[in-house]
Amino acid sequence: MTGPVTEPHSTKADLAYLRVKELILSGELPPASVIAQARLARDIGISTTPLREALRRLKSEGLVELDAHRDARVAPLAAEEARDLLELRRSLDPLAVALAAERRTKADITAMRAAAQGLEPLPADPAYAHLVAHRRFHRALYAASHNDLLIQTLDSLWDKADRYRRLALEAERGQDARDRKAAEHEALVELVIAGEAEGAAAVMRRHIDTSLGAQAARRLLGDLPGGPVRSELSSRGRDRD
Question: The HTH gntR-type domain covers which part of the protein (predicted)?
Fold first, then answer.
């Protein structure tokens, strides 16, 4: 795998944080896998001290688990978390694009069009760069809401959600489903730019209900009591974002 597609870093701990996060989201460090800290530090070219600092930061984001013996592993996937992420995104993403349709600026429109340029639905085994492009697109949409708390909340959900998207991509999907997702991406941009708040929210709601996150939640829930979301999941379509 090539080097990380990340923003500039300023310290060794920042470098370690970005690199380990990339390894987790790319699947090179799978869920529940043990993190060999000494070897990983050597691979990154740092000591274990900044690596431990990075791991603590990743723990605060729910991507890493640390125990009292200083052992570290990638946080496992969990049905409850998949369900919780889906419940939040079904509420917050439609709100964000509705606000974006009311508040978008010329700079926002430029950013949305740039992020949409060449964007394709995630492939079966996405590289980290694919995940970055996908996130950039959705962030351009919700950043146009100009609601700082909403933007921060959606930012905090994104890395966790990427791990469940990768799980859902293990199941093969057809070209028709991919084409529908591409059409939804295009529609979201055009509706936000046109100021169509209700239309943008409706498309986004459908986009989330048929997303990879929804597919992962459906796969993981099994017999877990899921309340309303589980019953809704069982009756919704099986397209994937």
Answer: 10-77
